[in-house]
UniProtKB/TrEMBL annotation:
Family matches, as Pfam families: BURP (PF03181)
Alphabetized InterPro entries for the sequence: BURP, BURP_dom
BURP domain residues: 1-45
Highest taxon above the source species: Eukaryota
Name under which the protein is recorded: BURP domain-containing protein
Amino acid sequence: MVAFCHLDTSKWNPGHPAFEVLHTRPGATPVCHFMPYGNLAFIKTKGITASLAS
């Protein structure tokens, strides 16, 4: 399993469903996604787009 976390959510829309589910607000806490083995993720880092497959 892989976790991807958005550490700075301060500029997100306050109405985003993640904030409702987590009972929080923009900028208060990180928001993470958990992806099971076998899922495909496209990640942009330092101007290079990478593809990782578990």
